[in-house]
Amino acid sequence: MSEHVLVEREQGLLTLRLNRLDKKNALTRAMYGRMAEVLQQAERDASVRAVLLTGGETCFTSGNDVADFIQAPPSGPDSEVFRFMRALFDFSKPVVAAVSGPAVGIGTTLLLHCDLVYVSRDALLKMPFVNLGLCPEFGSSLILPRLLGHARAAELLLLGESFGGEQALAWGIANQLLDDGAATLARAREMALGFQRLAPSAVLDSKRLMRAPGREELRRVIEEEGALFGQRLRSPEAMEALSAFMQRRPADFSQFV
Ligand code: COA
C-alpha cells in the first residue's frame, strides 16, 4: 500500500522512506511498484537532483516480504521487484542510502547500486539467500566477489553471514559510519542535498562513466540470477525455508539430497 512508502520532497532532493515498521519494513509487491513508479518519474523530472533511500532511524528493511514470496512470487522481468531494481540500476542521478538496523536480503543488495551509503553503528547487513533456499540477486554474485574477493564473498553469499556498519565501511560498501540512526539520516540528507549545488550535467556524466565498465556483463548476470531466483523460489527447498520463517522454526533441509 502506498502509505508504506512515503515520498518527501525538499528542494532538489526526493526521499523515499519505507514506512512499515511493524513488519520491519519488509517490502511487498505494492511497495516495489510504488518505488519503481517514483524513481521513473524522478528520472524524467529535471528538478530532482538526487534521491535518498531510507527506512527511518531504526530499521532499513528486512528484505522481501516472506509471505509475498510464498503467495505471489515474482515472475519475470515485469514483476514489481524487477521494475524497481531496473529503475534503480538505470537511474542516472545520484542515489544516497541511509541505513540503520536490519538491511536484509535485497536491503543489502540494493546498496550495491547506490552511489553513497551512510550506515549506523547498529546496522546489520545480511544476504541469507542460500539459507532461504534461494540464490544471489541483482548482480551481487558478480559485484561482491570483485569487491571483496571470492573467499569473503562466499561467507556472505553461501553462508549468509551478517556484518555490521563498521565492516560495511571497511569493505567499501559504505562511505561513512555514524553513531546512531538519527545521525545517519541527517548525514545522508545533508550529502544528498549537496548535489543541488553541483553542476547537474557534470554529475550525470560522471556517474555514467563510473558505472559504464562491465555494465553489459552485469546486466547479463542480473538476468541469469533473476531467472534462477524465480525457479528457486518455487523449489521445495525454498518452500521449506520460507514456511519455516513464517512458523518461527529452523528450516530442515535434511529431506533434500
Ligand atoms: N517478511 C515478512 N514479515 C517479516 C519479515 C519479512 N522479510 N521480516 C520481519 N517480518 C515480520 C515478522 O514476521 C514479525 O511479524 P509479527 O509481529 O506479525 O509476528 C515482525 O515483522 C517483526 O519481526 P521479528 O522477527 O519479530 O523482529 P526482530 O527484531 O526479532 O528481527 C529481523 C528482525 C529483520 C532480523 C528478522 O525479522 C528477520 O530476519 N527477518 C527475515 C528477513 C529475511 O529473511 N528476509 C530475506 C528475504 S530474501
Detail the topology: elements first, then pairings.
Blueprint: E1 5-10, E2 13-18, H1 29-44, E3 50-54, H2 66-71, H3 80-90, E4 95-99, E5 102-104, H4 106-109, E6 116-120, E7 124-126, H5 140-148, H6 150-157, E8 163-164, H7 165-170, E9 176-178, H8 181-193, H9 200-211, H10 215-233, H11 236-246
Parallel strand pairs: 2-3, 3-4, 4-6, 5-7, 6-9
Antiparallel strand pairs: 1-2, 7-8
Bound molecules: coenzyme A (COA).
Major β-sheet profile: 6 strands, mixed
At CATH level 3, the topology is: 2-enoyl-CoA Hydratase, Chain A, domain 1
Helical proportion? Answer: 40-55%
Please give the radius of gyration in angstroms.
Answer: 18 Å
Specify the CATH homologous superfamily.
2-enoyl-CoA Hydratase, Chain A, domain 1
Which strand order spans the largest sheet, edge to edge or round the barrel? 1-2-3-4-6-9
Q: What is the string of SSEs from the N terminus onward? A: EEHEHHEEHEEHHEHEHHHH
What's the CATH architecture? Alpha-Beta Complex
Family: Belongs to the enoyl-CoA hydratase/isomerase family.
Pfam families: ECH_1 (PF00378)
Subcellular location: Peroxisome
Protein name: Enoyl-CoA hydratase
